[in-house]
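Field log, afternoon session.

UNIT: design team B
ACTIVITY: writing a sequence onto a fixed backbone
BACKBONE:
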């Protein structure tokens, strides 16, 4: 299960907060703040283009499939974000099944450069109380990812699952993926 979140800049909210901090002394001060600009001059507010919100949709969950822990030393399983290939190391063995890299889609303002942020570490938990760590999350996006002419960008993500001790169970967690315009 993946939980996608996003951050946006809210200039109108910042403007409102600034207005609330400066209370006018009289009605005249209020009118000066709201007055229309003189003829031929344009206000910054009227020339600003409304920014299209940036949204994230997760289209496929990250799935490490079925594994068995052979000893208390633990082990790691990694899913490559580009190829989806799974690599197992340490005291883990493959029990079969299909592993999947995660996939997502960004939508927003066409042609804009975006940045996707993944957490460095997530603790996953099983119903029996066991835990495992998901680390080294990464995407297949280039350093400067750009939305296409339709305002879309598809990406894949993967990471490394670390299991130690006598952990067992079906591990689940939420990955807070954030994105913003550059």
């Amino acid at each position: 299960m993946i939980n996608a979140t996003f951050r946006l800049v809210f200039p109108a909210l910042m403007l409102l907060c600034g207005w609330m901090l400066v209370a006018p002394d009289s009605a005249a001060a209020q009118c000066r703040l709201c007055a229309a600009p003189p003829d031929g001059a344009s206000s910054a507010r009227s020339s600003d283009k409304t920014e299209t919100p940036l949204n994230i949709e997760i289209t496929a969950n990250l799935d490490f499939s079925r594994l068995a822990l052979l000893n208390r030393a633990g082990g790691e399983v990694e899913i490559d974000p580009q190829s989806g290939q799974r690599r197992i190391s340490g005291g883990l063995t493959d029990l079969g099944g299909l592993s999947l890299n995660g996939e997502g889609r960004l939508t927003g303002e066409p042609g804009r450069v975006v940045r996707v942020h993944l957490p460095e570490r997530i603790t996953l938990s099983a119903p029996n109380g066991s835990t495992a760590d998901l680390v080294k999350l990464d995407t297949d996006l280039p350093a400067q990812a750009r939305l296409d002419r339709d305002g879309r960008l598809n990406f894949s993500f993967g990471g490394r699952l670390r299991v130690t001790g006598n952990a067992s169970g079906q591990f689940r967690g939420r990955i807070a993926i954030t994105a913003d315009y550059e």
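LOG NOTE: Confidence is low (pLDDT under 50) at residues 1-38, 40-47.
NEXT ACTIVITY: expression trials, pending approval
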